[in-house]
Amino acid sequence: MPHIRLAIVGPSPCNRCYAACCKQNGHDWSVLLQTDDERRRFRPWAIDLAVTGDDGAVVVEKVLPYRDGRCIFLGDDDLCQIYEDRPLSCRKFECTGHFNRHGVGKHTRFIDLNPRVREMLESA
Ligand code: SF4
Ligand code: SF4
């Protein structure tokens, strides 16, 4: 039987959030740098991360680390301090796309690890 998906219209409600996706929530790193340009621009802050793929091959990626459980570019006011220049991973992320992704009530790990986000989306 196919999964039933519950669509949410519109973008993620970031104006009601507490920057959940910029805080440590299951990953050991805050942002995966995806392009050569951002690997160059963020080189002073980036660290190497060895990732093992499904085929067992190890690839070394460049990532931004957390500091005290927060992205190093997240201000004390929970706003991104480099918003205009933020990496592609940040631009693409929409928590709404993780909500009910695998059928009603079956979310991705991000939603399961962030119950406040789940509650926010459930009340949207
Ligand atoms: S967790 Fe969702 S609502 Fe909150 S800041 Fe991130 S994308 Fe926006
Ligand atoms: S770079 Fe900005 S948008 Fe991306 S995780 Fe850090 S604080 Fe959040």
List the topology elements.
Layout: E1 29-32, H1 36-41, E2 47-52, E3 58-67, E4 70-71, H2 88-92, H3 109-113, H4 115-122
Antiparallel strand pairs: 1-3, 2-3, 3-4
Bound molecules: iron/sulfur cluster (2 copies).
One iron/sulfur cluster binds at residues 12-14, 17, 19-21, 93-95, 117.
Describe the model.
It comes from Humisphaera borealis. This is YkgJ family cysteine cluster protein. InterPro entries: Puta_zinc/iron-chelating_dom. There is one protein chain. The protein is α+β, with helices and mostly antiparallel strands and 124 residues long. The chain has one domain (14-122). The chain is built from 4 helices and 4 strands. It has helices at 36-41, 88-92, 109-113, 115-122, and strands at residues 29-32, 47-52, 58-67, 70-71. Strands 1, 2, 3 and 4 form a 4-stranded antiparallel β-sheet that branches. The longest helix is centred in the C-terminal third of the chain and has 8 residues, at 115-122. It is globular and about 40 Å long. The two termini are 27 Å apart. Mean pLDDT is 90; it is low at 1-9. Bound molecules: iron/sulfur cluster (SF4) (2 copies). One iron/sulfur cluster (SF4) binds next to loops.
Given as residue ranges, the uncertain stretches (5+ residues, pLDDT < 50) are: 1-9
Q: What is the 3D form?
A: globular
Domain count: 1
> From N to C, what is the helix and strand string?
EHEEEHHH
The total of beta strands comes to 4
Count every helix, treating DSSP H or I runs of 4 or more residues as helices.
Answer: 4
Strand content: 15-25%
The small molecules bound here are: iron/sulfur cluster
Distance between the termini: 27 Å
Pairing-aware structural class of the strands and helices?
alpha+beta
How does the major sheet shape up? 4 strands, antiparallel
Helix content: 10-25%
- Averaged pLDDT: 90
Radius of gyration: 16 Å
